[in-house]
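Give me the 3D structure for Class I adenylate-forming enzyme family protein.
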Amino acid sequence: MGAETTATPVSRTPPPTTAVHTAADAARYRAAGWWGTETVGDHVARARAANPGGAAFVTATTRMSWAQYDDAATALAQALAAAGFERGQHLAVLLPDGPTAHVAYLAAERAGLVVIGVAARSGVGEIVHLLRLAEADALLTHPQTRGVELAALLAQLRAEGLPALRSVVVPDLADPAAGGVAAARIDGAPARIAPAPAPGAPVAALTPDRRLHPDETFLLNSTSGTTGLPKCVVHSQQPWLLAGRLAITNGGLTAQDTILCAVPTPYGFGLWSGHVAPALLGVPTVLLERFDVELMLELIERERVTMLAAVTTQLAMVLQAAADGGRDLSSLRVVFTGGEAVPPQRAAAFERLAGAKVLQFYGANETGIVSGTTVADDDRARLRTAGRPAPGVELRLGGDGVTPAAVRGPGLSGGYHADPAANAELLDGDGWMRTGDLLELDADGCLNVVGRASDIVIRGGKNISAPAVEAEVATHPLVAVAAVVAMPDPVFGERVCVYAALERGTPAHALTLDDLVAHLSARGMTREWMPERLVVLDALPLSAGGKVAKTELREDIRRRLAAGQRPETGRAPGGGAA
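Predicted structure for Class I adenylate-forming enzyme family protein (578 residues):
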């Protein structure tokens, strides 16, 4: 990976780095070629110059060219600047995973704004929490989100600690009939956009120094962590530009590829595969605004997709849906997957079905990409390990089977936003970041994830905090004590299983799974967090220290699954009556 140069250099002074990456670190990363001086916007402009009419984004019904993408982002950036948004303010983006979300991210970069990435499937409760935690100045969204009218959502957000929150309402910018950026409304008024300038001239209300530098914070996105509600992780563009280049190298990608990204935009995987790598290569990205496995198979065939980015659960669904035949997947060359380990048998089955190599990256929202497999790896390394460490990555392995590994290098995030206590747990001094996982290196230098120290459920590649779900379940009036454990599942990897003891004198049948889900839905809990199995016990087993013995519960749910017991009630671990 060589150092980058810009086609039209712009004088931009790198800002002070975070405590995670010192100025000396940044200089060393740039000298090694791991960090560059260009932003995603620079690469989009280059792709536009090379192929203005070529497709940047494709959906089931629309196409957006590189010229349209570039123009829409500049127009939206100009409208935001003209509306008085100041450089460095925080813009929450709540949009489906279509072209408009990418336009919004690029517009924010050019207007010097920090994006708060909010997944389209987030519940209202999670949206309120994230925007308050990330200190949002404005919300950019469609007029209606998941059936919730914008006015109602804004009213709740303003009542929940964001009284000055501004609104930016945009149509589907890839739909020619929607009116484009000119149809956007900022604080209820039409967006102000100056006429397009002559080629190469600065856009009104925008100057080159307003744009974000690649070292600066450009995104705050959410992570579940291991305790409490989601935290906000601080990202510059550098780790994700590095990830995009690593994907190109590991996957042997070229300017002739077509990418399909099935992963939500706000998360790291969706970011490098749908927003960054395509801009680096100047190639089309096929997007699904809402995941649908049959539609995905149709688009792979129709668009002759060569690279697929999908979490493990989605890959399992593709394998199930495609096993019956009827779809041509022969265009696929490489599949990137992650979020959790892919069972080797499932990956091998997909390779046989599609003739594509299945590659994995290991890492996290906080750490960036730590390791990855490549198309040149043999079957053992590719299907049964997490690959070799990424360029510049240093690892400190616990080695005792108990201590989580730590990592440092050019791919790290900037830690958590406005959360010193969480950063004290995450960071271990001298630039080391704790992974929460137990790791080993084999004789070939490949990384293996042998355990998880954190208390999370990984459902379809998304980390779900067990303590956070427990806290929500405990709000049900019939629940006295609740514990959440991961229930093994052949498709999603894990599902959320709740063990609950009810208030004294309450019969076990008084609380059903449907009752609990209805209660949590009314509280605005995110859909992916919802319990999918409920076991009601007289009392939860306790450890010697007085805490709930989750190891016993994990063993118990495996026994119940093996025995085919009904989910709502059963016998308590150890043989006690339920």
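The first strand starts at residue 55 and ends at 58. Let me know if you want a second pass.
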